[in-house]
Amino acid sequence: MTRSSALRSERLVLRRWRDEDRGPWAALNADPEVMKYFPDVMTRAESDAQLDRFDAAIEERGFGFWAVEVAGSGRFIGVTGLSVPRFTAHFTPAVEVGWRLARDAWGHGYASEAARRSLDFAFTELGLPEVVAFTTVDNARSRAVMRRIGMTHDPSDDFDHPYFVEGHPLRRHVLYRIAPGHSG
């Protein structure tokens, strides 16, 4: 995927980041409800740094967490895409599919649609043999997306996320997997 290209689905565009995404991305990351299953809300500086890391990964690998906009309107609604986890676990190295959308974009099927498009890219363009996704045990919304896109969960794969200290309520994570030809 080049700087000028984008991935398209029926209603969405997954694209490279732009400077005008910084404000809406920071607002999304400052929303306590959106960030409920993350360590904390993010400051503007943290949000900008994360955006820069996402864009650098796309530049380096040709994939990453892309900015997501509603086709036709250009409305930025969040992030979806592929990433290489930066921690060590029993399933790494791996490529994960992930998403984080603004609250007003919830309930419209955007996360599932964008994740399916990301998986299509992972399997057809990158030729990956598997993609994973993970979240905290209690994140029912993300777990529902994982099931809707055809991912499967084996409880023996669940793990303690190393970014959370022992005893932290978000430390235990579930792992979902999908291979080519199994998307929902």
UniProtKB/TrEMBL annotation:
<dbReference type="GO" id="GO:0016746">
    <property type="term" value="F:acyltransferase activity"/>
</dbReference>
<feature type="domain" description="N-acetyltransferase">
    <location>
        <begin position="12"/>
        <end position="171"/>
    </location>
</feature>
<keyword id="KW-0808">Transferase</keyword>
<dbReference type="InterPro" id="IPR016181">
    <property type="entry name" value="Acyl_CoA_acyltransferase"/>
</dbReference>
<dbReference type="InterPro" id="IPR000182">
    <property type="entry name" value="GNAT_dom"/>
</dbReference>
<dbReference type="Pfam" id="PF13302">
    <property type="entry name" value="Acetyltransf_3"/>
</dbReference>
<keyword id="KW-0012">Acyltransferase</keyword>
<dbReference type="InterPro" id="IPR051531">
    <property type="entry name" value="N-acetyltransferase"/>
</dbReference>
<protein>
    <submittedName>
        <fullName>GNAT family N-acetyltransferase</fullName>
        <ecNumber>2.3.-.-</ecNumber>
    </submittedName>
</protein>
